[in-house]
Amino acid sequence: MFASLAHNVHDVGFFRRSQSVLTVRGDDMVAALGLEAVTLLKVDVEGAELEVLRGFERTLAAHVPFVVFELLPARRDAGDDDSRVKRAAALMDLLGAHGYRFRQIGDDTLGPVQERIDPRAIARPEDANLLAVPRGRDEALPG
Q: Which positions fall inside the Methyltransferase FkbM domain (predicted)?
């Protein structure tokens, strides 16, 4: 539970043990599997979303899938130099450069379309699930 490949996401000592695992760049796996279409990526990697999506940049550009991911909340009083705030900004920049906009996933609805979501505005961990929507493809989604 709460395993992560990202460094500096959780406080020192948060994890009781570590384990080596094989990792493969997402774009390389898409190519190896010979996938003709990728319509949805679901990324749940406890803080390593930025690294995972960097590994899918060719897929994002070529297939333009919807992306479901988690944005770890940050303290409301966190400054712009806070590691979670900086990582979230980098994630928004990466997806934004591919033409994505964002909607928070609620219990029964999707929030309004936003150009960026600040992790300091996420009140509860259960509100941290987001949908990255390719520009121009959000009008068909329920709200």
A: 18-102
